[in-house]
Amino acid sequence: QFRLVESGGGLVQPGGSLRLSCAVSGQTTDDYVVGWFRQAPGQGREWVSCIDDSSLKYEDFVRGRFTISRDSIKNTVTLQMNNLQPEDTAVYFCAADRQGDGCSRYGRNYRFWGQGTQVTVSS
Asked: DSSP labels for 96-108?
């Protein structure tokens, strides 16, 4: 069983940066994968990025702007978001599960989800 808590959302102007954190608890080893997803108002959930013990991946629309990283000592996964644009406005969720097949872009492969954190990009 995992418990996930996101933090770091807020309001930022276009071109600005935010750093989201996902605190992971309940696991006893590092054998898990974490994904970041987002959901804009009136739209479906979309995958943003994921990280496992050997790889990290990004959706094309964030590649080069967002960076995912993992601190195994603090059990946190961070999403550094740079050059944010209004279309990045959404609630951002982190999700986790056992390593299994590794990093996945599909929400159905994650059983445990955080409550989400709002990111608003506006001038």
From this structure: EEESTT---S-GG
In whole angstroms, give the CA distance from residue 115 to residue 103. 20
Check residue 26 and give its pLDDT: 85
10-12 and 117-121 strand pairing: parallel
Number of separate helices (H) and strands (E) present in the chain: 0, 11
The tens digit of pLDDT for each residue in 33-86 reads 999 999 999 999 999 999 998 899 999 999 999 999 999 889 999 999 999 999
Per-residue pLDDT, 102: 87
User: What is the Cα–Cα distance from 119 to 101, expressed in whole angstroms?
Assistant: 30
Three-class DSSP category at 59: coil
Label residue 106 exposed, middle or buried (CB < 10 Å: 0-12, 13-18, 19+): exposed
Q: How far apart are CA 40 and CA 79, in angstroms?
A: 17
